[in-house]
Amino acid sequence: MKAFTFSFMFVLIANLALNAQTKVYNSQDVDSLPIIEDCEEPSIDCFQEDLKNYIEQNIDIVNLVKHTSAKAYAQFVISASGEIKDIKIRTTNKTLEKESYKLLRKLKIQSPATLKGLAVDMRYVTPISFKRTMINETEGFSEYSGRPTETEGPNIAFRDAATPPSFKECNSSGNESCFEDLVIRRILNFLETSKSLSRERKDEMKIKIYFQIEPNGKVSNSLVVCKSEKIIKKLSTFLNTMKVSEAAKNQNGESISTYFLKTVIL
């Protein structure tokens, strides 16, 4: 009987200790939230803004471009050691579900949440959404909504084509990076010469840019990801009016669709 009591008490104490170690807190229950990037004052606002920026800058829009819009809710735990675990994604879009898992697995945490000076596990829930925009030549800027489109975008990056796309200025340059250099130069020039957009650029800003180059040289399905809605709309319009002199070609010399993807730091 004594041995049984001792064993029972030992198991009980061990289980209580284990439960105490593995308790997961909600964000409102901790003293300080995890830090993703350096914050002047760690807070819920800083954590949310850093998480939002991380998602926007790292989401693979090449895989998502075939959809008009998609939304997911991601729940995950940031452990006391700074690891991301117990990821759960709720969405009807399988592509976004896969991308959300990939994003969160790669998320780096500088320091975990704390409570009374001790690192603790914290659970967090965040939406992850994607919306494609359309530029209509007669109606201007509008937003898609609804179900995924039936057609997929090109799966070849412009630089991987047998013959990359080019502008007229590239014909005599002999520079392999001429097309990319000119695209970036035109984007920067557009942003710098637009007075309404210059006010949007207060601090260093990352802008992720994606567009497709059709076999006829037309630019379509432009996507811009950044903090400023105004830059997103204006730059998307600018990109869709850009004309490429020659589209990319395959090994048989046939014009093909390719995509351009680049992150520009202002």
TrEMBL record:
Residues 1-20 form the signal peptide. Keywords: Signal. SUPFAM superfamilies: TolA/TonB C-terminal domain (SSF74653). This is TonB-like protein. It comes from Gillisia mitskevichiae.
